[in-house]
Amino acid sequence: MDDGRLLVVCKDDSSLEVIDLEMSRAAGAVLASGFTPHEVVATRDGRRAYMPVYGDTGVGSAGSDGQRVDVVDLLTFQLVGAIRLPFPSRPHQSGLLPNGRVIVSTELDESVSVIDPRTLRVVARLPTGQAESHTFAVSVDGRRLVTANVGPGSVSVIDVPSRRLRGVVPVAGKVNRICLEPDGRLGYTADQGSPRIAVIDAQLIEQVASIELPSIGFGTAVTSGGSHLVVALRTASEIAVVDLRSREVVHRVATPDHPQAIVLHPDGVRAYSACDAAACVVEVDIRAGRLLRRMETGRNPDGIAWCPRPTPASKD
Prior knowledge:
This protein is mainly beta.
């Protein structure tokens, strides 16, 4: 299997750093068009990335309001286009639907925007019904989308084909990050006021359980088979692995300071997280529960994404 690359958004550098995992070092970097990008996603062939430019402040705080998503060529490490959002946005997270369309959280609009990658224009706006819809997760089939609404402490459930908001589930005083099981039934978001994960049934539109954690969680990811949940424990500087059958923590891995988002390698064994206070990315073996390596990055790394190493387009 191609070891691939990690795309790392370094907020204080306003840049995208591309790490070659086979070499354990940067293959290139690209400056964003503005201040500040937070998150990134790559196309499935690893040739392009979409990096929203959020603004100069944190969620819910006064500051500039970004209205642009940078398009990055991952072969040449250059900006090659821009998605210009024609409404107040603060675009934060980007993702892809199975049909190749780009989706971006546009939280000032209380929506997730759907973008045609050929025209770079918004073709739909999926309503979240809540402020600060900062992050989202989408089912493997692309039919269901959930958002973590930070300040309201809620989760919105959206039917993508009909563009309909199915409901909003209150779960905490404040939440951050969210992930979905591959089939799109259960979602997991971290309560920012207590050490627990709220478990949302996206079919029933209700919270059905809580998972107790050793400390307050942040980024989460579910393994492809749906058996385990990987959680960044930001303040404890650990990554926890939860057995979803027992809903018990089975591994705790010490990391450098403040792990953020969690990204899983397609091999099903490795997980990655950017540790913003330590300016690095870590690789963890989630089966053995141990730290494998640390890779240095630029300043204040935050959003990360895995992608395959790209191959040049054929000239035929």
